[in-house]
Write a structure and sequence with these properties.
11% strand, five-stranded mixed β-sheet, DNA polymerase, domain 1, 5 strands, alpha+beta
């Protein structure tokens, strides 16, 4: 690296400056030969150290690679799921979601994959009567439960009352969200029947037997997104199904 004239004059000026009070004088610094010796010693030591580390690195990397591949290697599990009243035996990767088990292994494609992140509700199914996002549920966890999908709601040719209400009130456009909306509405009616409360129940002060108003329906169905925005008709369908269930 070249040293410019301005650098030299600057260093000269610095060395000519008086030391401020309390500062160590320049002769307190180590002799040049000591400094060279220390630097050499340091560089030598560092070289030995890095050579040692470098020779160990491939082994550490290989061990880490083996650890990662063991941790991520597919592990399969044999399980039996009770879906729509039928026992279904499966051997699947332990990480398989209920949604993928339904769609990819059992061809129950009525349940839809929207976001695959628990945000849209398209994958809603009933597990022991409770609505769950099947994209967030491991299939292995659902073993021993009663799983109901959209395919299991009708009795033969007789539609479930919520399905019939969606048809009657035109509660869909493209229909992609509809299986999830219907499963969600089925659970909603049961939740309301047993007196479960929502945020709206607290806001309106109806904390004993809340009326299933349109606001209640909107709040309780808010986990199910409809990209076609068929919301007014969905609310009408749920309202009609609730009235039908009461009459
Ligand atoms: S696909 Fe499960 S919540 Fe969207
Ligand atoms: S009907 Fe199309 S997303 Fe809901």
């Amino acid at each position: 690296m070249s040293t410019s004239l301005s650098d030299l004059s600057a260093s000269e000026e610095l060395s000519n400056r008086e030391q401020p009070e309390g500062h160590a004088p320049c002769d307190a610094l180590p002799e040049a030969s000591d400094a060279v010796f220390s630097r050499r010693t340091f560089v030598k030591g560092a070289g030995i150290l890095s050579a040692g580390v470098a020779s160990g690195l491939p082994r550490i990397a290989a061990a880490e690679k083996a650890r990662v591949s063991a941790a991520t290697a597919p592990q399969t599990i044999a399980l039996t799921l009770k879906i729509n009243g039928k026992q279904q035996a499966l051997t699947i990767d332990t990480r398989t979601t209920l949604l993928d088990a339904l769609r990819e292994y059992l061809s129950l494609t009525g349940t839809k994959k929207g976001c695959d992140h628990g945000q849209c509700g398209a994958c809603t199914v009933l597990v022991d009567g409770r609505r769950v996002n099947s994209c967030l549920t491991l299939a292995a966890v659902a073993q021993g439960s009663e799983i109901t999908t959209i395919e299991g709601l009708a009795h033969g040719d007789e539609l479930h009352p919520v399905q019939a209400a969606f048809l009657e009130h035109d509660g869909f456009q493209c229909g992609y969200c509809t299986p999830g909306q219907i499963c969600s509405a089925v659970a909603l009616l049961e939740e309301h029947r047993r007196g479960d409360l929502s945020q709206v129940s607290f806001q309106t002060g109806q904390t004993t037997t809340p009326q299933l108003t349109d606001n209640e329906i909107r709040e309780r169905m808010s986990g199910n997104i409809c990209r076609c925005a068929a919301y007014p008709n969905i609310v009408a369908a749920v309202r009609a199904a609730a009235q039908g269930a009461r009459s």
